[in-house]
Recover the amino acids of this structure.
């Protein structure tokens, strides 16, 4: 049956009402144009502070903290690309350059940065799990960089591999010396790609991360409650030593455990809208393909899905700021490092007496 015929078009690819379009336009103005920009700036500031603090000498010998540093870097990159989207799509700032960079840089990099953040969260859970259940396998014989790379390389490589198709979905053409036309490629309308990639995203970016971090944190919590043996405590401490070679106190173990638990809970809560959207996209895959057959790419989604998508962006932007709040509340050493950095900054600009 031909979905593109006029008789079947409204059934297989429904239109949004005029009131729906007005509502979505209003949400774009207030969410993307105002709230989202403010949250992006707040998140970029908090992620920047976290990067400065976690890269300091008080944290750079701890593998767990270095993985948190990588997470903050990926979050900062995603926030930067998100605010670029807001400024261009809502306010029209830099539209020409945006159209030029979107197909092969901005669009794929935004997806890659988000995937890296998700995979890094999974790596943090895995690092703590291995530290508890196989503590002696984690004794570093050299600098901790090689242990960080064991987690970082798969995260980056996996994110690039998963998002390779993103580099082939858009193309641009020069209409004249001042105007660029941004259009989709044939891959974006390929039915096999749409079906395969929708289910792949649901599995790899939705279901798997949720089950992974939930299971590992439950196992870590279970092990901590059941055992207080020296081998487990050694694993939790990750053999992090001070300059004098002394093992850090048990208080550090608890700080790292509750830091991971808190950011995982925040991650799961902030991922709920995104996972719902991924699940719904897989359910209505036939409708999406029908709309493509009717030359209406991007149509077929109900208004509640589009609204939830806008709030999902808000949740993803809020996540890094909440992570920073967790670091500040749970880790007293992190708070002290922030205070020291601010004191040093004020003294350099002349606000404090020397």
């Amino acid at each position: 049956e031909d979905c593109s015929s006029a008789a079947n078009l409204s059934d297989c690819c429904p239109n949004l009402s005029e009131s729906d379009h007005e509502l979505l336009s209003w949400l774009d103005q207030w969410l993307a144009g105002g709230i989202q920009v403010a949250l992006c700036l707040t998140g970029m500031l908090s992620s920047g502070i976290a990067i400065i603090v976690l890269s300091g000498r008080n944290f750079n010998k701890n593998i767990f903290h270095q993985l948190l540093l990588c997470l903050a870097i990926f979050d900062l990159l995603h926030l930067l690309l998100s605010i670029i989207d807001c400024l261009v799509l809502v306010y029209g700032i830099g539209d020409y350059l945006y159209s030029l960079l979107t197909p092969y840089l901005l669009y794929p990099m935004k997806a890659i940065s988000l995937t890296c953040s998700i995979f890094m969260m999974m790596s943090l859970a895995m690092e703590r799990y291995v530290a508890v259940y196989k503590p002696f396998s984690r004794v570093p014989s050299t600098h901790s960089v090689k242990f960080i790379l064991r987690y970082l390389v798969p995260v980056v490589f996996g994110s690039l591999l998963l998002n390779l198709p993103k580099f082939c979905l858009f193309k641009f053409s020069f209409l004249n010396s001042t105007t660029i036309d941004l259009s989709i490629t044939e891959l974006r309308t390929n039915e096999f790609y749409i079906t395969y990639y929708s289910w792949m995203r649901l599995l790899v970016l939705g279901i798997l991360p949720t089950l992974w971090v939930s299971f590992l944190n439950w196992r870590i919590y279970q092990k901590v409650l059941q055992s207080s043996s020296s081998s487990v405590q050694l694993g939790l401490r990750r053999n992090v030593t001070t300059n004098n070679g002394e093992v850090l106190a048990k208080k550090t173990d608890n700080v790292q455990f509750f830091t991971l638990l808190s950011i995982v809970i925040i991650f799961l809560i902030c991922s709920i809208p995104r996972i719902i959207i991924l699940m719904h996209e897989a359910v209505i895959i036939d409708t999406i393909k029908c709309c493509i057959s009717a030359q209406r790419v991007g149509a077929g989604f109900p208004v509640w899905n589009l609204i939830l998508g806008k709030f999902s962006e808000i949740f993803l932007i809020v996540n890094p700021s909440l992570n920073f709040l967790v670091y500040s509340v749970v880790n007293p050493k992190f708070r002290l490092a922030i205070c020291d950095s601010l004191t040093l900054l004020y003294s350099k600009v002349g606000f404090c007496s020397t």
Remarks:
- Residues 239-249 have pLDDT under 50 and may be disordered.
- Residues 316 and 344 are 32 Å apart (CA to CA).
- Residues 95-133 form the longest helix (39 residues).
- Strands lie at 170-174, 180-184.
